[in-house]
Amino acid sequence: MSEQLEGLSQHALERLKGLRSAGSHEGVFTSDLSVNEYLLVRDAGFEPVGLVVGSSVYHIGLQRGGYNQSMELTVLTQAMYESRELAMERMETEAHALGADGIVGVRLEVNRYEWGSDVAEFMAIGTAVVARDQGAKFRTHENRPFTSDLSGQDFWTLLKAGYRPLSMVMGSCVYHVAHQSMFKAFGNIGRNVELPNFTQAMYDARELAMERMQKEAHDAKAEGVVGVQLSEKSHGWGSHVIEFFAIGTAVTPIRADHVIASPSLILSLND
Fold this sequence. Notes:
Elements: H1 10-17, H2 35-43, E1 46-59, E2 71-72, H3 74-97, E3 102-112, E4 119-131, E5 146-147, H4 152-160, E6 163-176, H5 182-187, H6 196-219, E7 224-233, E8 241-253, H7 263-270
Parallel strand pairs: 3-5
Antiparallel strand pairs: 1-4, 2-6, 3-4, 6-8, 7-8
Helix pairs in contact: 2-4
Protein name: Heavy metal-binding domain-containing protein
Organism: Alicyclobacillus fodiniaquatilis
InterPro entries: UPF0145_dom_sf, UPF0145_YbjQ-like
């Protein structure tokens, strides 16, 4: 157990002792699920055991792109990816310590403080859950708790359709978008015209993020990814440096011979 809890603070360990663990009715559960989500998660056959959190305060290295060159800033991409992974791993470790089968409603946050523009806190937060049917398999192939950013309603619908979440999968790409030359900028004044260098840069960066997310899903042996979200943020780097981030939940059928029920029937149950 000591190896499983490596990297957690003493205060986190004390908090976990007061939470309800798998197979126990002692302690309290905590959750950031809404009331409706909580009831649907229970109706899907799971019991919340505790809110689990992972954090990593990370110093982001320095890398600059050429003024007139569109290019990935690999140092920054690696920092954004590794810091989120550290936060996710610590959240999963807390869930594992509680004996949870998975974590639902996961959200990833990036917080910046007055320490400087090159330092950020990466947080992963979700509700650890335990399946009431202890004979069912919901953990990953590596026997780790599953992770999912689906809402309680979508989690319920997914299970009713005969699928289960495997893990959250993500792809990141920090990209420097080249500046326009002064000559071209002046030439476009007052005109409706596509800016092909901007278009190509944005397209390429999103494709890299999506490709990396899909590779994670392939490595997890998933059938597909649901609830995919694409976002772009500058994180204070400036207008021409943007992180393109793709995230979703990798899923697989509960049974190999599964046939999806009528979507209208599932939706009517969810109303």
